[in-house]
Amino acid sequence: MHVLVVGGGGREHAIVWALSKSPKVTKLSCAPGNAGIAALAQCVPVKATDVEGMVAWARENAVDFVMVAPDDPLALGMVDALEAAGIPAFGPRANAAVIEASKAFSKDLMAKYHIPTARYQTFTELEAALAYVREQGAPIVVKADGLALGKGVIVAQSVEEAEEAVRAMMADKKFGEAGAKVVIEECMTGPEVTVLAFCDGKHLVPMPASQDHKRAFDGNQGPNTGGMGSIAPVACYTPDLAQVCMETIFQPTVDAMAAEGRPFQGVLYFGLMLTPQGPKVVEYNSRFGDPECQSVLSLLESDLMDILLACRNGTLDQTEIRWKAGAACCLVLASGGYPSSYRKGLPITGLEEAGKTAVVFHAGTARNDSGELVTGGGRVLGVTAVGGNLDEAIRGAYASAEHIHFEGMQFRTDIGRAF
User: Fold this and answer.
1) How far is it, in rounded angstroms, from Cα 117 to Cα 279?
2) Domains in the chain and their CATH numbers?
3) Could you tell me which of 228, 231, 238, 291 has the fewest CB atoms within 10 Å of its CB?
4) pLDDT per residue as tens digits for the range 307-345
5) Entry pTM
C-alpha cells in the first residue's frame, strides 16, 4: 500500500516510524513532513491544511490510504474530501472532529449525555463573560472555543488574570475567531492523565495512559506550550480507574457521538482530571496528542496499519492490539525562548549518537542550503526512550539527549517526576 501521512511534526514522525514497520506499507509519503521524516518517507510540499491540494496529490500519485494526523485539516473536512474522491482515510469526518474544534460543542455534549466534567458557561459577549468571572471568583479556567494550537486554555489564579484572558480572547482576538466564543469553567484539581483511544464509530480500544507536561519550565511553571515531554503508562491510572472511565466516560462518549449522527472514527483523545470526586473530562481532542503519541506508539507491538484499517472499516472489535511491557519517556528539546520568540536555522549535532539508545523524533527541523540539519520550529526534537520501568525510560531519554546540541537548546529536567 502507498500510505500518505498528513502533517509535519513530532507526532507525524512517530506515526511514520510506526507505519514503516508494517509489511502492508510498501511506500510512505508525508505532507509536508520534516527533515527527520525524510529518512523514512517521501516528503511532499503540500500544506497540511490544503484540502484540495492534498486530495489532488493523493489522486495523482496513486495513494491507497491517507492518515490525517493534525487537528486543523480534520476540522476542515479533509477526511470527508478524501473519501468523496474514493481515497480511504483515517480520522474523523468534520462533523465528528467538532468534538475538538468547538469546546462549547463538547461541553454541551457532555452535559446532555451526563458525562462527568467541570461546571461551565459559554459566552459570546465580553461583558457577560467578565461579569461571570467576577461572580465565580478564582481559580477559574478560561478556554477559547475553537482551535488555538493547544494554547487557548488559561488556568487563572486570580480574577484579574481571568479578566485579562477573556479580554485577550474576545476583544483583542489573540486567537482570531477561535476566541470569539469562550467557555469559562470551574477549576478542577487532581492529577491530569491523557488516554488516547482507537475508535471505529461504535467500539473503542484505549491505549496506555500517558501524561503530557504542558508548562515550559520545571515544576509546571511558566507559559503553556504544545508539550515539553510525556510518559506512558501513568502509575496513578489504575485498572480500577480505567474501568470507571470506560463505563462513565469513554464508551458513553463514543455512543453519544453516534447518537448525534456524528460517529467518531479515528483517535479520540480524552484529557482527564482524576478529581477527589472521580475522573472527569478536561477536554477532548480528535487526534493523537503531541508528544503523548511519541511515548505511546513506542510501546505498540501490533501493526499500526492493521489498526488504522480496522478503525476505518468498523472492525476494531475483531482486532487484537498488543503493547510492550515497561514504559516510555519522550523529552522535548526546544528552541531558546520557546514558546515566545525564538531563532531558526541553528545547526543541530549529536543525533547519530543519541539514536543509538533512543528514537529521536523530529518536530521542528529542516535542512539548510548546504544540507545541514538545523532548527526549524519551537519544539525541535523529541528524544524517546523505552525501559523496563518508568525510571529506566526517563534515565534513557535524558542520557540520550546529552549527546544533542544546538544553540539555546532548552528542556525541562523533571519530565515524569513533576506530578
Assistant:
1) 8
2) 2-94 (3.40.50.20), 125-180 (3.30.1490.20), 192-318 (3.30.470.20), 327-401 (3.90.600.10)
3) 238
4) 999 999 999 999 999 999 999 999 999 999 999 999 999
5) 0.94
